[in-house]
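Hi all, long-time lurker, first post. I run a small reading group and we've been trying to get comfortable going from sequence to structure in the token notation. Rather than ask abstract questions, I figured I'd post a concrete chain and ask someone more experienced to write out its structure so we can walk through it together at our next meeting. Sequence below, copied exactly:
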Amino acid sequence: MIRVPGFEGRRVAVFGLGRSGLTAARALKAGGALPVLWDDSVSSRMQAEAEGVAVEDLTAADWSGFAALVLSPGAPLTHPEPHWTVGKAREAGIEIIGDIELFARAVAALPQAGRPRVVAITGTNGKSTTTALLGWVLKQAGMTVHVGGNIGIGVLALPAPTREAVYVIEVSSYQLDLTTTFSPDVAILTNISPDHLERHGGMEGYVAAKARIFTHAGLALVGIDERWGRQVAAAVSRARTVSTSQGPADIRAADGHLTTGEGHEVDLTPARCLPGRHNAQNAAFAYAAARALGVPHDKAVGGLLSFPGLAHRMEHVGTLGRVRFINDSKATNADAARQALSSYDRSWWIAGGRAKGGGIDDLEDLFPRVAEAFLIGEAAGPFAARLGDTPHRISGDMASAVRAAAEAAAATGRDEVVLLSPAAASFDQYPDFEARGEAFRAAVLALGATPAGAS
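-- Answer (accepted) --
Happy to help. Here is the structure in token form:
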């Protein structure tokens, strides 16, 4: 755990007792603060009380006695309207921060010679894969690496800082909105496409939140495939750019190939877990960050090629005859699904869930690659209407979709891909995209498929 100094003997309000909230309270308490916790959930409050941390109804508290509000990233700061704790904090004139900012202050409090290096990654899509990939590359190079944040372990639950360590942290737009002094040595923005707009008041607010990662950063690595990324890159001094398309860029990422900008050409095709143009982009960011941290070229490439991949992100889960099953449940919007559909000349596509703004309108140019679509969840009807003449059927649930897709793909007698890339959120049928991906895996294995990696 990371101790958070700077609030010794002072009361700090902590709202939201999920993973980040409880961890923040522990870190504050370890640093000498007096955290005061509250959550709308009775069970969450009971868990906090069981840990011996003060729980107090913040609706009736005297906010003039608090030094700060540590707000859960799940509670709105500005839109669609500020959380009630935000109003209380502003009336009392106290700062509103989150767990990433607490981490930043804990690092800044260390002597300069004893500080670890920090890499922060954000973006609409690809940030989790880039985070895990960079962590893997650095570990393969023999470095002490701690990976967490919005992926896996909450940032304040990571091991205490040491001089030789590197923290590789995924940060969301919600978390970045709650930072003021966060200063990573390397900051990465993978890409930007419309997402979470209700929480940021529109695209302008969303882009501004993502761009906060560069406010105090050292090296800036920016994806410029979209106009919003190009806009951010133009506003960041000395940004290094990454692109998968034509046009000027410092680092070029094509499907299966990198041009590093250092005179090196890297063939990614031996890396089975990095298919598609989007994974080439992720590899480009990981390579550039690793090189900036002193990893030699050969070791950086070796790490990329040996990456085992992440669950629910273009994950090969099994094979049945000549049919491969790919789990891309993390594709919760059309832009993410585009990356998956573009990776195959032809696929039997399982899509649907709770649709986001625009649905699958932006994927029309890829419909010719869809042999047939099998639609699930709330979006099944609207997606069917949008697919038009593209072969499709409404399956309703995951098991039915997997079974029907497998039968249709196998009937061709060719090498085929059944692809779960929903282009929609999971919350109509599942608590999160991980549960949806596991349901897909279970349905595939129930058909008798050989699990990926099995001999």
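A couple of things your group might point at:
The domain at 11-97 is CATH 3.40.50.720 (Rossmann fold).
The CA atoms of residues 12 and 35 lie 5 Å apart.
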